[in-house]
């Protein structure tokens, strides 16, 4: 609870390799009344991991896909129907939020309650195209040239090489030195534009107006369509930071460079220095070890959900026909291999 508001965190899950770092932040927060983990996966090993951590921590509530169908991001929208409790602040975190500043949840819930005029509020997100744009125009991040605003920008969103450089810049210059406050920007309003909803908060009362029925793409509807129809804007709390690992376009490159391991080491050092965090982290790691021991059989377990056959688009079919060398050339079209680097300082 926070100032008479119930606090519910939720995550569309998911991938345990990321959530081993996210869960301790959420479970250890004294103001979180419930952590809803939305089980949106067929992966038996990941599902077992969530079951294991839920046994250890009563605040964790496993939520099953209401329609009994899992189809990647396309099946997430059904979960919002339960996010309509009155006098409740909901805080949705992507499963690959791999770092957050201390007491981030408390800071963002406070900001949410003090700014009821916005539909969605978000912290500043490291590796989010529009958050990066804000850092650029505010002079916190100096790039090789000006990159325009856009949630699906070919560099700021798509490029794995840019994401690698951005994460490394943040880790080495600000995270290890514990100087992330130098990136604070203050409150920034936004309206009538789509943004990546890696980390967002809303009021259950507002979601109840449309019964949590989110048609189609949840990101487009929540960040752009609904607030535009309501004449509302959204806002960033630029004085609060989280780190988002990767969009699917970036993941392969970041894995090659072991960026997740670097965040993992930062998180481990932080968790082990605090008794409560360390206890949660130990439980999470025990669940990771349990799943690792039984991974083969867990991956062969029957999914609790129906699956939807994936249709290949013409673009995918054409791409598969191209030689690998040509595919790689297309991937690096906007990347640092072409012009030497993005970040100046």
Shape call: globular
Nearest-integer average pLDDT: 94
Order of helices and strands: EHEHEEEEHEHHEEHHEHHHHEHHH
Structural class: alpha/beta
Q: Regarding quaternary structure, how should these chains be classified?
A: single chain
- Count of spatially separate domains: 1
CATH class (first level) name? Alpha Beta
Beta strand count: 11
CATH architecture: Alpha-Beta Complex
The CATH superfamily turns out to be Spore Coat Polysaccharide Biosynthesis Protein SpsA, Chain A
Describe the structure.
The protein is α/β, with parallel strands linked by helices. It has one domain (6-339): Spore Coat Polysaccharide Biosynthesis Protein SpsA, Chain A, CATH 3.90.550. The protein is built from 14 helices and eleven strands. The chain has helices at 16-27, 44-56, 104-114, 129-137, 160-175, 204-208, 218-230, 251-256, 259-272, 275-293, 295-300, 314-321, 324-331, 336-339, and strands spanning 6-13, 34-39, 60-64, 69-70, 88-93, 97-100, 121-126, 187-190, 199-203, 234-244, 306-307. The strands form three sheets. It has a five-stranded mixed beta sheet with strand order 3-2-1-5-9. Strand 1, helix 1 (16-27) and strand 2 form a beta-alpha-beta unit. Helix 1 (16-27) packs antiparallel against helix 10 (275-293), helix 2 (44-56) runs antiparallel to helix 10 (275-293) and helix 9 packs across helix 10 (275-293). The model has no long low-confidence stretch (mean pLDDT 94).
